[in-house]
Amino acid sequence: MPALTRLAGTVEHRESALSNVATILRLASGEGDGGFHAPSIADFFPAPIFFEGTFFEINRLQLVRFIAAAALIIIFVVAARRAKLVPGRFQNVIEFVLNFARVNVAEDILGKEKAPKYTALLTTIFCAILAFNLTGVIPGLNIAGTSLVGLPIVLALWVYVMYLGAGVKAHGLGGFLKTSLFPPGVPPFLYVLLTPVEFLTVFILRPATLAIRLMANMVAGHLMLVLCFSATQYFIFEAGPAMKAFGALTFVGGFAITLFELFVAALQAYIFVILAAVYISLSIEDEH
Questions:
Q1: Which residues cross the membrane (predicted)?
Q2: What sign for the dihedral angle of Cα 50, 53, 56, 57?
């Protein structure tokens, strides 16, 4: 999928921008406790808020996920109850999202005959990931619910179970293994090399890459946002007079990255659900 391959380059640009800003901050920060403190991986493991030390322990990241899930449910319940024959703006937005998942994902990948069976799954995954991703740029929440690997793993395993189940149902266990591990049209002696690769791809790499790709992009985005806005605070309130002008630079950079994160939030939801549809399509096709 050439389009998806080209989009992978966005991660490299994000890392380059992060490195450039960090270099400026290392030059600007002073010695001791008053200097600039860059964001770290500890941001993704906040201290417990409720029920500390129990099985039901809740931290800020989990609370953000609960809020996003509740907001998503409320939005669709309200949209369903207020649905009209002549839609308003709110209903138009909801219908646009639903039609996008149905037409541009399910029907384009699976075909109109097979799409209805998986449209609900793909739409739910797309909307859920989009909601969890957008929490990273919402003031007061400020961290994506998908930036810790647990949730991406759950979503990837959901897709994994669905495409394996769809393949087994379509071909039987033996037929699914045969079409997945022994692609037709290949000289038999190449199966010695090809079958192990296909096994790794179908049963390990697909769910792993789904989870890692989603998490890595959200982690990178959070670190860049925190770096820019904490740098703005440092330059304006703590740095020397000669360095305060950099505060405007980092503020503009943070605003630009916020807009970029909105795009990435939607893009990663789209990539995840497109790949989910592709995997399901591959598992139910007779030959691939």
A1: 63-80, 118-141, 148-168, 188-205, 217-237, 249-282
A2: positive
CA distances from 246 to 19, 228, 254 (A): 16, 11, 12
| pTM for this model (two decimals) | 0.84
Give the helix/strand (H/E) hosting 58: strand 58-59
CA nearest neighbour of 220 among 267, 275, 252: 267
Based on the number of CB atoms within 10 Å of its own CB, is 176 exposed (0-12), middle (13-18) or buried (19 or more)? Answer: buried
pLDDT for the residue 36: 65
For 155-211, write each residue's pLDDT tens digit.
Answer: 999 999 999 999 999 999 999 998 888 888 888 888 899 999 999 999 999 999 999
- Closest residue by Cα to residue 216 from 128, 124, 127, 133: 133
**pLDDT, tens digit, for every residue of 120-137?**
999 999 999 999 999 999
Of 250, 258, 252, residue with least CA distance to 221: 258
Q: How far is CA 249 from CA 232, 236, 252, 258, 259, in A?
A: 8, 11, 5, 14, 16
User: Closest by alpha carbon to 31, among 238, 264, 186, 207?
Assistant: 238
Taking every pair of Cα atoms in the chain, the longest distance, rounded to a whole number of angstroms, is 73
Domain ranges of the chain: 58-284
